[in-house]
Amino acid sequence: MNKKIIIILISIFSVILICGTIFAFQKNGQVEQNKNLLDEFGDSGFKSVQNSKDNKQENLMDYGAQAVLVESEKQEFNLTQTLEFLAKTGKDLFGMKRERIFQPINKIVEFRKKSVISKIIKVPEDYGTIQLAINNANFGDTVKVSAGEYKENIVMKKGVSLIGSNVLEEEEMEKDKENKENKEDSEVSELDPAFFLRLVIANETIINGENSGNVISFKDGITSETKLANFTIKNAGENLSGILIENSSPLICDNIIMNNEYNIYIKGNSSPTIQKNSLRFGGKGIQVYNFASEKEREGSSQEAGANSETELSSEVSELSSVSFSGMPNIIDNLITDNKIGIDLYYSSATIDHNTISYNNHYKIYLGATFGIYMHSSSAEISNNIITDSGICDLCAGVNVDEKSKNVILDYNNIWNNKSNFVCFGECDLKDSNISEEPMFINPANWNFKLREESGLVGKGEEESNVGVRW
Questions:
Q1: Does residue 311 contact residue 246 with C-beta atoms inside 8 Å?
Q2: Which of 446, 465, 447 is nearest to 455 (CA)?
């Protein structure tokens, strides 16, 4: 038998014996194990590590901090934590790197994390704050937050979903659907209950950043298994974001995001799905910015659309030759009353079935405002309503600069902007695009549903309605 295979088998057998020893003598060995692990992150005690703002605390959590904190005398290892502890703190053996020796264990840990029974953690019943609940959740868990206002700045965790209070039960939704199907009068009320209930759902649970920091942050490889839904998210710090998505791809749906300089800010290798949200009263409804592309195309670290000039300069300078290629999916969102509805900067995106309207900053902002603005970017823009953007001579519904390429516009209604469409780059404006009054039900009260007599009904791709479909 191959010598290396024998060594690996011996190593795995040794691990099993060590596991048994840990379970048998856990209490006596706990403090020593804790100290060994903490030594990897410096000589400071746990309290200073816990309170620091660098990556030490995050690393401890990644190691299964419940099992290794110095002050936790009664903590118990579960099997996943034990395997993970050994795989990440084991030493090199017989000249082989520990990463290779413990590769089978790492695979087992990953499998167990994804196959564990998910649990629901409630706020404030189980934990008093949203962040504390997230910190104590495991991969696959859901944090459900009761209605109310929470003054926090949240950092999300991989595989943990955050869901706000939902005032509609499934039976009520089904009943409402049946009532609509049986309704003889086809006239749609200006106070369409289905439309406003969706907004009320998000309004029930508020996360207020109190003008300090990003309100909610997704960082470092968070995937679509992480969901954020049913919140009102507002009041980020100056030049910061209601939702910051960095090198991550979560699902963001059914939220109201408002009163932030960047309601949603997406950067790096990020491909989130932004769906069925209402984004309003911001500097930018959605900003997508790919730092690495700028460095590759221009070889510079100049400021361009980031949360902070200092932050941008330092982040771009650290990119070296790494390339990001995120593709956000922006679908079925209501984007109103911002300076710019969607801003693509050295980026690509799919923009489909959104209503992007009144992005002229309450008609008092004299600077350039746009429905969609693109700089050195590409996009597929389909089935959107883009109206009433800008009052200045340079303002436009869609503005594409000379460095943008592969911009495809299909089945859109672009109407009543200062300039409907301005393209200096490479644009493919299909014959399916139209320009006519949308005939919203009641836009003054954010009811941007189409009246039955609207010319946009059934004029989208595959005979869908143009604009938002909820």
A1: no
A2: 465
- Average pLDDT score over the chain: 75
Mutual angle of helices 26-39 and 3-24, in 10-degree steps? 120
pLDDT tens readout for residues 127-148: 999 999 999 999 999 999 999 9
pLDDT tens string 13-43: 666 656 555 444 444 444 444 444 334 433 3
Amino acid code (one letter) for 166: N
Q: Which of helix, strand or coil describes residue 448?
A: strand
CB 15 within 8 A of CB 86: yes
Strands (E), 124-272: 142-145, 148-150, 154-155, 161-164, 205-208, 216-219, 227-229, 232-234, 241-246, 251-253, 256-258, 262-267
Q: Please give the Cα distance from 204 to 148 (Å, whole number).
A: 6
Residue 385 has pLDDT above 80, yes or no: yes
Separation in Å, CA 271 to CA 233, 262, 276, 351, 389 = 21, 18, 16, 12, 27
Return the domain boundaries, the chain.
3-115, 120-463
The predicted-structure confidence for 209-218, as pLDDT tens digits, reads as follows 999 999 999 9
HSE-CB of 432 using CA atoms within 13 angstroms: 18
Q: What are phi and psi of 414, to 5 degrees?
A: -115, 110
Residue 243 CA to residue 241 CA, distance in Å, equals: 5
> Per residue, what are the HEC states of 231-244?
CEEECCCCCCEEEE
120-463 — its CATH code? Answer: 2.160.20.10
pLDDT tens digits along 225-260: 999 999 999 999 999 999 999 999 999 999 999 999
Q: What strands, in cross-sheet order, belong to the sheet with 340-345? A: 154-155, 216-219, 241-246, 262-267, 284-289, 340-345, 370-375, 396-400, 421-423
Structure tokens that stand for 126 in this block: 């189980």
| 76, pLDDT greater than 90 | no
